[in-house]
Structures are given as C-alpha cells and as structure tokens.
Specification:
This protein has 172 residues and is an alpha+beta fold. Helices cover 30% and strands 26% of the residues. The protein contains five helices and seven strands; from the N terminus they run E-H-H-H-E-E-E-H-E-H-E-E. Strands 1-2-3-4-5-7-6 form a seven-stranded mixed β-sheet, sandwiched between helices. Strand 2 and strand 3 form a beta hairpin. The two termini are 30 Å apart. The relative contact order is 0.15.
C-alpha cells in the first residue's frame, strides 16, 4: 500500500497525538508511563503545528484514508527546537502506529523532513534526538545517511541521571 506524506490537517491532530502517545507508551519510552509529563506534549499536536510543521503518513484513499504516523519538522531557528543550532533543522516526535510499522512510513516521514530541510534557505544540517532503545529508528537514520554526534548527546531532565538522549545529524 502506498504511503503519502503531507502536512497534518487540524481534524487529524487528535489521531496524530494519540499515535505518538501510544508509540511512546507502548515502546516503554516514557520513564513515568501514563503519569509522564511529556505525554501531554506528545498529544498536543495543535501546539506543535502552531510552531513547526507536523507531517503525517497516510495510507488508503478517499473515505478509507487513515493516518498511520507523524513527525514534527522544526525549520532552522524554530521555537520547537531542542538541540538545533543556527542553520540546522530538527526532527522531533517521530511515531508510527504499531500495526503500520515495517512498511516504510517512518522512513518516508524522515525523508520528507530531509527534503524540507534541503529546500530551506541556509539549512546545512538536520539533527534529531533519540533514545538508546529506539533501534528501528536508528536503522532508518543510518540508511538515510545520519551519523551519531555523541558530543551533542543530552539529558532533557538533568535531575535524573539515567536519561540520556542520543544525537544524530545529517549534513546536507
């Protein structure tokens, strides 16, 4: 089945937020589970869409069309950036519904972000943060030419020593 990548529509925000939340919960990526404060951020797609580009992976057509994944693309200098520096775009909150994994939606979403970065004036690099256990995502990044940037690894919650996000980058 063909996957189409496009900008999320407001009526899809709830679905994208739930796909993202369930992916993080289901994969054990939230240290505090259902009570994790980050869960609210994952579900708040309207907030992300107001400050960045939220893209969706869609399968099917017409009345059978359904969203199976999403990603937030933060252009250079965008307010949603966690780690991007001048001239860098950032990829955040990549998620694909469990039942749709393994069919290329995640890779298509990352490719779309890279294409957007290449089309952005002055953008020289794409960066992203990932958790150590996101092995499927790491494989996608490697296939697309991203490399590890260990000097940029960081901890979003400095009070907790065991949370370290890995940084990957792609020079355009």
């Amino acid at each position: 089945m063909t996957t189409v990548i496009r900008r999320a529509r407001p009526e899809e925000y709830e679905a994208v937020g739930e796909i993202t939340a369930q992916a993080y919960l289901g994969d054990g990526l939230l240290d505090f589970g259902e009570s994790d404060e980050y869960l609210g951020e994952l579900r708040d797609v309207a907030k992300r869409a107001a400050a960045a580009d939220v893209l969706v992976a869609v399968v099917g057509a017409g009345a059978g069309e359904r969203v199976v994944g999403g990603v937030t693309f933060v252009p250079s200098g965008g307010p949603m950036a966690d780690i991007a520096r001048e001239g860098e775009a950032e990829i955040r909150m990549l998620a694909v519904a469990k039942e749709a994994r393994g069919h290329g939606a995640g890779e298509a979403l990352v490719r779309a972000c890279v294409d957007r970065a290449r089309a952005s004036d002055g953008c020289v690099r794409v960066v992203l943060s990932t958790q150590r256990t996101m092995h499927s995502a790491h494989r996608i990044y490697g296939r697309l030419g991203f490399t590890r940037a260990p000097d940029r690894d960081w901890n979003p919650i400095p009070d907790l020593d065991d949370i370290m996000l890995l940084t990957y980058e792609l020079t355009l």
